[in-house]
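User: I'm new to structure prediction. If I give you an amino acid sequence, what do you actually give back? Let's try with this one:
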Amino acid sequence: MAGPGAFAMAVGLVLGLRFFLFISRYAVNVLFWDQWDYLDRFFDGDPGFAEVFFLQHGPHRLGLGLIATKFLYPLTDWNVRCESFMIGGCIFVAMLLALLLKKRLFGRLDYSDAFIPAMFLTLAQYETVIGTPIAAHSTFPLLLTMLYGLALLRQNYLWRYGLVLLVNVLSIYTGFGVFMGAITIGLFALFCYWRWRGVISVPPVAPISGLLVACASLASFFVNYEFQPAVDCFEFPYHRLVDYPRFVALMFSTFTGIRSPTRFATILGMAILLPAIFILGDTIRRAVRAEVGGQVHLMVAILLGYSMLFAANTAVGRVCLGLPAAAQASRYATLLIPAFLAMYLYLRALHRKVLREIALGLLALVLMPGLAHVSGHASWYADGKRTWVSCYKRTEDIGYCDSSTGFAIYPDAERRGLKQKLDYLKNRKLNLFAE
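Assistant: Good question. You get back a string of structure tokens that encode the predicted 3D arrangement of the chain. For your 435 residues, that looks like this:
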């Protein structure tokens, strides 16, 4: 219907305008934290596309995200504000693709589809766009996940399998899209099972070949790979196993904008996590059985399974940093969007109208705080960066600016050669020194 579709799009445009105004207000043109690390190749010269695509930073590679930066920086004098807007643009496009995905699954848009812009444009993910804006970390994986879903809905099986495998390999090499590699192996294993049971009529070689390609794609990621947990305290298994589910629960409650009190945030997170686990199990069961509505069930399982793998990995890698703070990093919120989209699609497909409306109402209540509230940490980032930049332009003394402003753009300036890099930017009038 034109009315519901227009309403959902209007909500998306209004929230999109707010989202970009937020970026305009809080994004500051200075490289920050991890950017000083993975941009080493750019200070040394002009790295090739292959070097950029396969570059490992922490536990993942940078893939398409860093290639986008490679194009953007020469055009903008290394302007980080432009990078923030690019990241915001990718999230906005992902939101539009999610609306298209919902329409393809259900045949139409509804008034409740306004939930989709609310999920994608939540300000709970502020670090993604104005903290340390790394396009590869979660933004490009989010965009690729939506493209993956649309590719899966292609009618022709050759196009469907080919596009899914292409998006899969791009995801594997782009940030935390790597978890899509495991999802794709499971997907093609399911296709092989369906072919054996006669659920699908494609030639047997198609799903078998897809499974082999999916396995090879994920295996290729580990060629010349170095295990980098990115935190010195990494311990596995962690001595307090109960902290793993608590960590994931706090990640989910942080998406809603609720951070404190910690006990309430944990309970709220568990109230989201437990139904999510049930939905994941139910949709996998229904997809394996190829029940009616299988496309929706399969899509929900893929989206939710992907976010769950990300959340579990984050808990394993970061739990040693301590709760609740380590679990409440807002940059995690971006890759929880597929989970909330999946839960929305599942609820939208419920046959009992009363149950569906109650569940969607609860989902609306969960989404509202993160959508409406702007965290004070956003101002901390913006004010700290601006003050530090002003100080450094005046004194060119990193240590003095760190101590006088109470803010640092990198934790160990001497080890990273920060002064030499700042001189490089100054001599070429780039980044914070650009006119």
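You can read the tokens as a compact description of the fold. Here is one thing that stands out. The beta strands are 56-57, 60-61.
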